[in-house]
Each structure stands twice: as structure tokens, then as C-alpha cells.
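Hello,

Our lab assistant flagged a job as stuck in the queue for most of the afternoon. It eventually completed. Since we weren't sure the result was trustworthy after the delay, we are filing this so someone can double-check. Below is the sequence as submitted and the structure that was eventually returned. Let us know if re-running is recommended.
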Amino acid sequence: MPTVTFIGHAGVSVDAAAFHLLADPWFAPTGAFLGAWHQYPRNDHLDLAPLLDADWVAVSHEHLDHFDPWVIERLPARTRILIPCYPGPAFRERIAAAAGGRQVIEIQPWEKFALDNRGSWITVIPELSPMCHDAAFLIVADGRGILHCNDARLTAAQARRAKHMAGGRLDLMALQTSGASWHPICYEYSAAEMAEVSMAKRVSKLRATQRLVRQTEPVLAAPFAGPPCFLDAEVDHLNRVLDQADGAFCDPEAATAWLREHLPRQRWECFKPGDAVDLDTGEITRDPVSAEFSFADAGRGDYLRRYAADRADAIAAVLAGHPEPGPDLFDRFTAHFAHLGGLSDYFLRRIAMIVRFEVTGPNGGVWDVDFSPDGLTVAQASPDVRPHYRISTAARWLDGVLTGRMAWEDLLISFRLSLYRDPDVYNDHLVGLLKHANAPALNAVEAYETGRDESERIIVADGGARYDIPRYCPHAGEDLAVGAVVRDGRIHCLAHNFAFDLATGECLNARAANLTSRPL
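-- returned structure --
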């Protein structure tokens, strides 16, 4: 009788007869990266021993709210760790370093990996574009199918294929409805702009979830994740996101209410740490401690202050591990970007702009990185130069990246920085170069983006006009026939919220290939 127990942000323990599988653990004592933020509710009474006593652990990607070294180090020596096989080596190397002598096994996309001799298996479903190294897990145990989407933004076609692989039925589908994203919370928007961007992002995320569930019709759909909360005084001001009913990062209770309203025939349930659902009977057992928690609790401020006090020693230890850098910071910064600039000519052509880094604190400065198609250069900032992006952070955090203690994306999702864009257009390739920083991963993106077949086209209508467009989004391959919203002369891809002008094909809010639309 398979039972699913929910233990955290994206944590699911699947107890199916003789094996245990823990998907994306997240219950380390420090909460999350740099002691900066933690999603709540917390449930410290949970007995972790049965969850750690696992034969298999599956980890989807390297974000530290999914891949937690503290958990990996406490697993039994027999535990085998399953990860997706991504084009670059970074995730594999990071897992291997934390795993000690435990076996790490990479699973190829859509490969059925046997978990026992009774027909239980797991597979990984990575995002279609290799720009993002995120993946869902499809688990079939005792005849029950569970699709755990983690942070992966699956296309409708991928979700339907997963259901087919599971025998035409998904008993449980868990979907992230609030991402750990630095946009818009870390951007320098006015209050009005922040509200507008936040609401658009929130609704886009919920619509994407609604679309996937409509396409797959699972027996039970479970929204999870969000919003973040911040426990360190340096980023405490970001807790304003918790006070915004229309903010970008809604909590699971709010997400469930919205989804129930917009897809009322679907069964929706949100879970808290320690809750369990029996997939044979559908019965839900609520954890008595978690049941006392509500995201809408008026005493939230006191709750967070107690939470921060409990984590104070751990936060102080993390901060102490990031001392101020020496006077050679600019030289190491220059060498770091010289290395990045030599990894991919394709990415330099796609970035093609100047990024200004404002580095505060000892030995910081204001430095411009020119990502030119002719080559990358680094220089002290000049008032005569107008940057397209501006990234501001403290020298101690930049030093962590340069020394390899963390990756660029770790810094981004720590929220210990601010950003500004002029014009306000997202550059996916800039973020991709920073977060991957290795040639195999970048080459895989180039091969994907330059090798797409755009011959299959569809007709869309808006305001009496009709347009011939490619069926698949030029950014990351979403099926626009089912994964897009058309309004006001634009088509909005729900996968990543890219918006294209139907008359010109131009992407309006990000650097992306032209849609090649044709008015009819």
C-alpha cells in the first residue's frame, strides 16, 4: 500500500512496500543557503531517522533547497543517490563531493531505472531546453504513478508522455507554484512597477500549473513551495513579500484556492511537513503540529523572530565562513570573467551587452564587463559607459563565487544582491553563462537552440487578426498550441513568461529569437 509523506519544500517520501525513496530532501538545520531564507512552516518534531534510512535518494538539481549536503552526509552508506544526467559536469561533481563513498547514479532522460524486483521504477524528465538543469521525477511503485515536478517547467507534451509511461494514470502530481527566483524581488523597481510585475509573474505561474494539470488530469494534484522568508538581518527587509496578497510568490494555501477556483473538477490538496496521503484510499492524515500553522496567521512576525532566533548560531557560522576579501579581488574578478568569456562564442554573441558590477565593502569597486561578440573585456567603470545590466553585491559574496565556495546561481538565489536592467529586458544567456560556467553545458544549449525544427506551424487569432506562427516557442520549445495565452496583439508563453509581438515576432520582455510570425 503506497503512502506519500510530505516533508518540506519539495520533499516527498514514498513508502511503497520494501523500498523507500526520498525525493529532494530539505530539512537541514540552517534552513537554506547562507542562512538567509527558509520557506515555512517548520516542523522540528518530525522524526528524520525513518526518512534518512533510505535505499534510494533522488536529487533533481543543485539548488540548496533540493540538494542538501547536511542530509546527504547523514544517509546510510548503502544509500544510492540518483540524479539526472545533465550535459555539464557541475551537478555530478557537486553531488559526488557531498556523497562521500555513497554510490551516485546518473539516469538518462526517460530511462526506466528499476528500484526493486517487483516492478517499481523511477525516471527523470529534464526541462526541454538544456539552459535550465532542472528535472521532474516520475515514480511508479506498487502500480501507483507519482509525477513530482520539482522546479522543472515541463511542457504539456512532456507531462502527457509521463502519464502514458505511468500506464495512463497519475495518482499524484506535485507542482511547484512559487519559484525561488530573484526576479522581481531583487530588482530596483518602483512600488507600482513591483506590484505589476509581481502579479503578472504570479498569475503566469498559476496558469502554467493549471495548464499542466488540465493536460494530465491526475487523481490528486498538490501545489507546493513559497513564499520564502528571511531569517538573517541583512535580508530581513525582503520579508515584505509575505505581506503582499498579490505578490509574485504565493503560498500553497493561496495557490490551492486559486487553482480550485479555475479548475474546480480537479482534486487539489496542499500539504504541510509530516502530512501523509494513502494513494490506495485517498485518505489524508494531517500532522498535528503542522496543522496548527497557517500562512495567513496574524502573528507571523513573532513567528519569524522566534524562527530567526533559533537559527542565529547557524546563520552566524555561515556568515563567518565568508570573510572580507583581500586587495586582489579585482584581479581575480578579471581572471574569472576572462575564463567565462573563452567558453562559448555563441553565448557572447547572444549576450552582446555591458554588465556593470557594483561591489560594496572592502576592496570592492565598480567594474564593467563587456560581453562583446568580438571577445570579453573587463575594465573599471567609466561614467561615459551606459550598462544594460547592473548587479550590486557585497565583496564577501562575490569572493565566495571567485573562490569556488559557491556558484553564481547560489548567490542569485540567496537574494544578497540587487539588479537593474535598462531596458528592462531579460537576457537568458547572461544568466546561463554565469550559472553553468562550463563548455559542455553551454555547447548543449547552442546545439539545442540552433538545431530546432520550426517547420510545424499553427494559426492563432487575436482581435480579428490571424497569424501564422511556429507551434513551438523559440525560447525553450513549449507547445504554443496549448501552453500560451494570446491577447492584445501578443502571445505569452506560459512556460517561462516570454511575450512576443504577433505582428513583428519580436520578444518584448527578453532576449530571444524572433517568433517568425506572419500576419494572414
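-- support follow-up --
The delay was a queue issue, not a problem with the job. The result is valid. The chain has a mean pLDDT of 86. The CA atoms of residues 13 and 22 lie 5 Å apart.
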